[in-house]
Design goal:
The complex is a heterodimer.
Chain A: H1 2-7, H2 14-56, E1 59-60, E2 68-69, H3 73-81, H4 83-99, H5 102-115, H6 121-133, H7 136-147, H8 153-160, H9 177-202, H10 206-214, H11 219-230, H12 232-246, H13 251-256, H14 268-278, H15 282-308
Antiparallel strand pairs in A: 1-2
Chain B: H1 2-8, H2 11-16, H3 19-55, H4 59-62, H5 76-85, H6 87-118, H7 124-133, H8 139-151, H9 173-177, H10 184-195, H11 199-207, H12 212-220, H13 225-241, H14 244-249, H15 258-267, H16 273-305
Helix pairs in contact in B: 3-16, 5-16, 6-10, 6-13, 6-15, 7-10, 11-12, 13-16, 15-16
The chains are: A mainly alpha, B mainly alpha.
C-alpha cells in the first residue's frame, strides 16, 4: 500500500493506464454511442424536415428544380382566399366536436360496466377492442360494404324483419358524408379509450366506493364523484390528444371519399395531400402542414390556459 | 351496501334474512349487466360476421338477398382474391417491413432508453426532452419535406451525388423502413421502464469491471421482457397499419403494402365485393394473430403510457 502511493506519481503501470483509458471510454464516449443512432435518426427524420418545412412553406415550388421565395404569400392565400381550406377547417372542427363527445361517452359507459364484472370480462373486452387494432383500410372496406346502398345492411336488415329499408348512399350524400366517416372512424377508435379508462378505473382504491356506498350514493353518484375524479388525469390527457388528432385526420377520409362528394368531406389532411401529390404544390402543401400543426399546438395552449385559470385538469 | 338493500328488498324479508334478497338482487343485476355487455359485444362482432358471409357468397347472392347464409360456401373466393390481387406480395411486404421496423425499434429505443435512464453525460435530460418533444410534431407537418428528402437522397435510385436525376429511395424497402426507425415513443417507454429496475445489480457489475454495454445487454435487457414485448407489438401493429407513408412513397405494385394495395382496389370502383371481402379477411389475419398472442402486452402498453406509438 505504502509502496503503491510512493511510486504512483512517477511510474504508471501499463495496466493502470489501460484501466483509466478504459474508464474514460466508458464514462465519456459510451453514453454518446448509446444515443447516437436515435439522435441522428430524429435529426434527419424529424428535425431537418421540420425546419425545411418552414422554408418550403415560404416558396412557390413544385418540388422539382428551383424554389422561388415568396415570403408569407402562401399563408395569405391559405387564410384569405382558399375556400377549400375554409371548408376543410370547418370539417375538422366538426370532427373535433364529434370526437370529444361520442367516443368518450361510449368508452366511459362501457368501461364502467366492464369494471363491475370479473368473470368473462376478457372476451367481451377483446371483442370491443378488436376494431381498434385493425388497419383503416380493413375497417373502411367492412363498413362501405355494410353501408353500400344496394347490398348493405341499411337495406337488408330492416327488410328482413318487414320494415322498409333505406338505400340512401350515406357516403355519397353531401349532408351525411362527414358524420358517416366519423361514425366509421369512431367505431374503430373508441375501444382504445375504453381500455385506457378501464385501466385507470381499476387503479381507483375500492375503499372509495365502499365509503360512497356507506354515504348512500347510487350508481350515478359513484360515477360522478368517485370514478370521474379517479380517472381525471387520463380523461384530460385523452381529451387533449383527441383534440390534436382531430386536426390531423387523413386515412379514413382519403380511403372512403378522397374529400368528396363535391368537397363535402374535405379535411386539412386531404387538402394537403392533394396539393402536394396531385397538384405538385410542395410549397403550398408545406404551408398547410404547418398551419395544421399550429392548430394542434393551439389545443395544447387552450389546455394550458384552462389549467392556469384554475380548472382542475 | 346497507342502504341499497333497504331500498330495494321487501322490509319483512330484509329483517329475517338480510343477506339473501340482496344476493338475489345482485345476481339479477349482474346477469343484466352480462346480457347488456354481450349484446354490445355482438354489435361489434356483427360487421365481421357480415363481412365474412359476403366473402363466401357468390357475386349474385350479395345483391338484394336479405340476410342469408350462402347457398354454397365459396371458399374459392379466397384463392381468386389471392390470384387476382397480388395479395401475397402485399402481405409479404407489410410483414417484412413491420418486422424490420419492430426489431430496429427494439435495438434503438433500448440503447437510447438505457442511456437516458442509467448513464450520465452532459445535457442528458435536455436531449431526452428534445426526443420526447418530437412526439408532438405531427407527421403531416414533415410529410412533404420528408418525401423530398428521401426522393433526393444522394446516390440512390439513379440519383447523382447531389441527389438529382432519379427517384432516390422511393419505391424501395429502404424508404418503407429506415425513415420509420425514429421512435420517440419507444425511447420514452423503455426509459421509464429501465428507471424502475433496481440499480444494485448494475452497480455491482460496474464495480466488477463489466462494460456499460455488457450491463445493458446482460442485465438490463433480460429484466425487461414485458416492456420489450409491448414495444415490439406496438411497433409491428403501427407499421402494419400505416397508410400515409407507404401511399406516398411506393409507385410500383410490387412494393405496395397490404393497406395501400387494398385501398387501390377499393378506389378502382371494384364491383366484386365477394373477392374484395375475401382479400380483406386475409389481410386481417396477421394483425389478429399478433393481437391474440400479445393481447396482454397490448392493453398493458396502452394503459402504461396512454399514447399511441
Amino acid at each position: 500500500m505504502a509502496q503503491d502511493t510512493m511510486s504512483s506519481p512517477g511510474t504508471i503501470t501499463p495496466a493502470m493506464a489501460g484501466r483509466s483509458r478504459n474508464k474514460f471510454f466508458q464514462k465519456k464516449i459510451v453514453p454518446w454511442l448509446f444515443i447516437a443512432p436515435i439522435f441522428l435518426l430524429h435529426l434527419f427524420i424529424v428535425a431537418l424536415p421540420s425546419l425545411s418545412a418552414v422554408y418550403y412553406s415560404m416558396t412557390d415550388w413544385s418540388g422539382l428544380g428551383a424554389a422561388e421565395f415568396i415570403g408569407l404569400e402562401n399563408y395569405r392565400e391559405l387564410l384569405l382566399d382558399d375556400k377549400t381550406f375554409r371548408i376543410a377547417l370547418g370539417n375538422n372542427v366538426t370532427w373535433l366536436l364529434i370526437f370529444i363527445t361520442i367516443p368518450f361517452i361510449l368508452a366511459l359507459v362501457a368501461a364502467s360496466l366492464l369494471a363491475a364484472i370479473k368473470r368473462g370480462a376478457m372476451p367481451i373486452r377483446a371483442s370491443l377492442f378488436i376494431p381498434y387494432i385493425l388497419p383503416s383500410v380493413i375497417t373502411t372496406t367492412i363498413w362501405s360494404n355494410l353501408l353500400s346502398p344496394r347490398l348493405g345492411v341499411l337495406k337488408q336488415l330492416p327488410e328482413a324483419i318487414g320494415l322498409p329499408g333505406s338505400d340512401i348512399a350515406l357516403l355519397g350524400n353531401t349532408d351525411t358524408v362527414l358524420p358517416t366517416i366519423a361514425f366509421i372512424d369512431n367505431w374503430h377508435f373508441w375501444g382504445f379509450l375504453m381500455v385506457l379508462f378501464l385501466a385507470a378505473m381499476q387503479n381507483i382504491p375500492p375503499d372509495l366506493y365502499d365509503a360512497a356506498k356507506i354515504d348512500g350514493a347510487n350508481r350515478w353518484h359513484e360515477f360522478r364523484h368517485v370514478t370521474v375524479p379517479g380517472i381525471r388525469p387520463t380523461l384530460v390527457l385523452m381529451l387533449l390528444m383527441v383534440s390534436i388528432w382531430s386536426f390531423l385526420v387523413f386515412d379514413y377520409v382519403w380511403i372512403l371519399t378522397q374529400g368528396g362528394p363535391a368537397g363535402a368531406s374535405e379535411v386539412l389532411g386531404s387538402h394537403l395531400y392533394k396539393q402536394a401529390f396531385l397538384r405538385f404544390e410542395a410549397g403550398y402543401a408545406s404551408a398547410i402542414g404547418l398551419t395544421m400543426s399550429m392548430f394542434a399546438l393551439c389545443m395544447i395552449g387552450v389546455f394550458a390556459f384552462l389549467r392556469k385559470r384554475g380548472w382542475e385538469i | 351496501m346497507a342502504s341499497i338493500t333497504q331500498d330495494q328488498a321487501a322490509p319483512a324479508q330484509n329483517q329475517a334474512t338480510p343477506a339473501e334478497p340482496s344476493l338475489l338482487w345482485m345476481n339479477i343485476r349482474h346477469g343484466a349487466l352480462y346480457v347488456l355487455l354481450i349484446f354490445l359485444a355482438l354489435i361489434f362482432v356483427f360487421p365481421f360476421v357480415w363481412s365474412f358471409l359476403t366473402s363466401v357468397k357468390s357475386p349474385a347472392e350479395v345483391f338484394d338477398q336479405g340476410i342469408t347464409l350462402p347457398a354454397v360456401w365459396r371458399f374459392d373466393n379466397y384463392a381468386n382474391a389471392v390470384e387476382s390481387y397480388n395479395l401475397l406480395r402485399y402481405l409479404y411486404n407489410s410483414i417484412y417491413v413491420s418486422v424490420v421496423v419492430a426489431v430496429a425499434h427494439l435495438a434503438l429505443a433500448s440503447t437510447a432508453g438505457y442511456a437516458f435512464s442509467r448513464l450520465e453525460f452532459p445535457g442528458r435530460d435536455y436531449l431526452f426532452a428534445v426526443v420526447v418533444a418530437t412526439l408532438m410534431v405531427p407527421s403531416q407537418a414533415t410529410l412533404v419535406p420528408a418525401y423530398i428528402l428521401v426522393k433526393n437522397w444522394p446516390l440512390f435510385g439513379g440519383n447523382d451525388i447531389w441527389g438529382n436525376g432519379g427517384f432516390g429511395m422511393l419505391d424501395s424497402y429502404w424508404v418503407l423502413t429506415v425513415p420509420m426507425f425514429a421512435t420517440a415513443y419507444g425511447t420514452f417507454l423503455l426509459r421509464q421502464f429501465f428507471l424502475t429496475l433496481p440499480a444494485d445489480l448494475e452497480d455491482a457489475a460496474r464495480i466488477d469491471g463489466t462494460s456499460e454495454f455488457g450491463i445493458y445487454w446482460r442485465i438490463a435487457l433480460p429484466l425487461s421482457g414485458p416492456a420489450l414485448a409491448t414495444l415490439a407489438i406496438f411497433s409491428f401493429q403501427n407499421m402494419f397499419n400505416d397508410f400515409v407513408w407507404p401511399l406516398v412513397t411506393t409507385r410500383t405494385d410490387a412494393m405496395k403494402t397490404i393497406q395501400v394495395g387494398l385501398a387501390a382496389f377499393r378506389q378502382e370502383g371494384t364491383t366484386d365485393w365477394t373477392q374484395l371481402m375475401a382479400g380483406t379477411m386475409i389481410a386481417t389475419i396477421p394483425i389478429l394473430v399478433v393481437f391474440m398472442l400479445g393481447q396482454r402486452y397490448f392493453t398493458q402498453g396502452i394503459a402504461l403510457t396512454g399514447i399511441k406509438g
